[in-house]
Each structure stands twice: as C-alpha cells, then as structure tokens.
Amino acid sequence: MSASDKPKQRKTLGIKPEAKAPAQGEKPRPPVRGRHLAGAAKPHTKAAREAHQAKPPAPQAGDGRPARSRRPGSEGAPSPRRHEERREAPRQASQGGESPRRRHRPAPEQAVSQAFFVPCPKGLEAELVLELAEMGITDARPAPGGAAFRGSLPDAWKVNLWSRLAVRVLWRVGEGRYQLESDLYDGALKVDWPGLFEVSRTIAIHAVARHSPLKSLNFAALKVKDAVCDRFRAEVGERPSVDTRAPDIPLVLYLTEDRYSLYVDLSGEPLNRRGFRVEPAAAPLNENLAAGLLRLAGWHPGTPFFDPMMGGGTLLIEAAMMWLNRAPGLKRHFAFERLKRFERIEWQRLRKDAEAAARDPEPLPIFGCDIDPAMVRAAGLNLKAAGLLECVELLEADFLEVDAPPTEPGVIVSNPPYGVRLSLEASYATPAAFYMALGDTLKKKYPGWSAHFITADPELPKHIGLSASRRTPLFNGPLECRFYAFRLVAGSNRRERPAR
Q1: pLDDT per residue over 232-256, tens digit each?
Q2: Per-residue pLDDT tens for 351-386?
Q3: Which domains does the chain have, with CATH numbers?
Q4: Disulfide check for 370: which of 25, 53, 227, 375 has CB 3.0–4.6 Å away?
Q5: Are 279 and 376 within 8 A, CB to CB?
Q6: Are 10 and 51 spatial neighbours (Cβ–Cβ below 8 Å)?
Q7: DSSP assignment of 329-363, as one string?
Q8: Rounded distance, CA 312 to CA 381, Å?
Q9: Which pTM was predicted?
C-alpha cells in the first residue's frame, strides 16, 4: 500500500481511544442506536457519520476487552443480578451449603477491647487492682473474689505472665439473662466456638453459682457442653471431646440469680502453680496468697525480709522473685496458647521483655528459719528448683532461741504453726504458751521491725501481748484466716498481760 492509499488520521468526537476497530476478517458489530457514550457528540459531516457507523460499540465486560464506560453516576454500581447473587451466597451457606470462603477465621485484630475477670484469693481484691495498674491496666475495678477489666487479648496474656496475685484470667465470650437450663443452651449456642478453637481440642465446663435458682450445676454445665458441641457439629461436622481432668480449653459458666456469663479460661492450670514447689510442706500457703501477704505487709524489694517459721519456703521464694523482678509465669505454659487467636510472635515478645527485665541471682537480705529439719530441707529444694537458693539464707533453729538476722530492721511475715503443726513445738504445753513466748521474743529482739502473721487461730491475738495495728480477713484456700500486723517500736505498743 502506498502512502497515498493510507487512510488519513480522523478526529472523532466522544469516542474513547480504547474502543479498537475490529480485527481483519471480523464482522463489525452494529452500532448501538439511541444511546451515546457519556460526553459523545453527533458527527456533523458525511465522512464523520460513515466513520461513526463503521466503529463498533465498546465491548462488554468479561469478553477479554476493556469494559464499557457507565453512565454518569453509575460508576461502581453492581447489576441487580450480581447484587442478588451476593445476598444469596451467605444464605445458602447458612442452610448447609458449602461457602467458597471459610466463615470461622480468627479475627486478625487483637487490640479490640474484650471483657476479662481475674479471680484472686478473697481479701486481696484491692491489691490485685493495684497490681494490674502497675502493668498498665488502669480501668480495673474490684469485684467479690477478683477484679474485672477491659483490654486486648495481649493484655490478658501479660496478666498471666506477670500477676503474682491472680488465680487465673477469664475471657468473657457470652452473657445474658436466664430462667431455665434451656436459656443457657440457647445463649451458649450463639457463641462462635469454632472461631475460638479447633474441634480437635478437648473441653470441660466448670459451673460456679451465686444465688442461682437452678437445682443442679452439673446439669447446667451439661447444657452448655451440649450447645458447644452442637455448634461445632453444625459448622464443621464434628464435635470436640470432653476431658474433665486436663482439658485443652477450660470453659467456665458463672451464674447469679438471673444472669449468666460464659468464660474461656486463658490460664489452664491455676496461676499459683509456678512450677517451683517440688517438695510439699505441712499447711502450705498458696503462692498468690503469699505474694499478697508481702504486699499487705508493705514489704518491697530493698527491705530485709525474715520468715521465722518458713515451712516449705513459699514466702521466701515470692520475696526473692519480687526482688529480682522475675515474672512468675516464665516457666510454664497457658491455655490461651491453644486458641486460634493466639499470636506466637507477640507472645514471644512479651516473654523476651520479661526475661530482659529480670535481674541475675545474688545474695539478698532474705532469711528463713524453721525448727523442723524436714521443712528446712523442703525449703532448700524448692528454692533450688526456682534457681534462688543462693539468694536466701536458711537456718535450722528455734526462732525463739536465736538472735535477729544480722541486718537493719526489716519486715517479718510468717504463717505460725497451730493445730497439728503446733504439736511439733514440744516445749510448749499449750498454744497460749507458744504465742506468749512469740510476743516476748519479738519485743526483746526485734525493735524497729514490723511483724505480720496469718493464722486461723483466734487465740493468737489474745495471748501474743501486742496490739495489732491492722486485722485483714483472708482465706487460705477454704480456711478463713486473719492477717495481723504489729509495729515493734520499743516500749510503744506493749500490752499488759492479764494477772494470773
């Protein structure tokens, strides 16, 4: 073809450049009559009209060519048919059909505010709120038997790692009103359990009630278990197994007079099980109660500490860990590590921060004493298991017969023997005689110290010969106790003994 045969460049009005001419041998499509593209103008010359009629319309979307432009104001608007298809898809999936996208993917956002409850030994609720505030959880509020707060899931992981007072951390996933057990089933069925954990995980439901009108907590827990299993069966075709002894995912049902709450136990094993107690002792203190006693006594790292009736050494271990800023949960695992929303990278970051904050073991002004050689051995083994043996000085002796530790005045906290343990003190005929000797020793040898004793024996304050500056009701497990504080300022708080 010569240059003169080539068609001249024509100026077209309103035709988009992407609308190509048909390929050679392809039959042109008829023009779209009665419709002009947005901004298009009618051609005015005969040549322009012929060129306009020969130009095919813009191709339809989906035929491999650029999509046709829409009218003004219609950009992005789906066709009615497509809109109906999108509305029908989830409806079909809910009726048992297979959805092209799984519905139970864990939410990627961990910073969404969640509701948590943190149980603790009764009497330590206010101290627990203070401890949570030290972790950066400032909205915690005390409640009977614990504290409630809102935060993210990593906040709850941090509490598991760092709290010395908490028994466990519970994540609330459902709540509502109830009258019958069937209401509990309906409420539990609404929870997206398959979105929380895999069906291969074992479960157990523990029911706790306060003024509930229901006759059987076991039946209430059974209804919740049925709802969890039915929800899994409907969504994934299988149901989780039950393991009442060591479940992967422990669940808690809490009932009041007319309301229920459903919790996922993020801790698993109680948090007082630090993994350090390898040798049991008679009448032991729980670790979280021991840590609470240290806080109530006003003791803090940097102050000498002495437990003159140490038993298995629980108070000594808690004091040394606080002094070295060791997170109590570093040596154990937690139930939240089995949830779908668990983020291993974030958890590893929290653990590494805790490891970096801990101080290396060193000799500390922390002292322990016991008259029973078996208890001295048990305390030594437990301290060794915790990696703290070099931090504490142990002595096998009668506290009433030895001098005060060679240090400046500090804080005494102890669980003095009573009942069966007191029978080991063969030199004292009665508990009253022992308590009188205890008070005399404190007044003579420990001026400037503060002494704090937890006991379930109401005879101690009657015979110790000292005026208690504070009495705090506490529970050591199911045992109701009192925590007495005595300020040992020479000559200032002695109480005259009654004449005999």
Answers
A1: 999 999 999 999 999 999 999 999 9
A2: 999 999 999 999 999 999 999 999 999 999 999 999
A3: 114-265 (3.30.2130.30), 287-324+359-487 (3.40.50.150)
A4: 375
A5: no
A6: yes
A7: TTTS--GGGGSTT--HHHHHHHHHHHHHHPPPP--
A8: 9
A9: 0.76
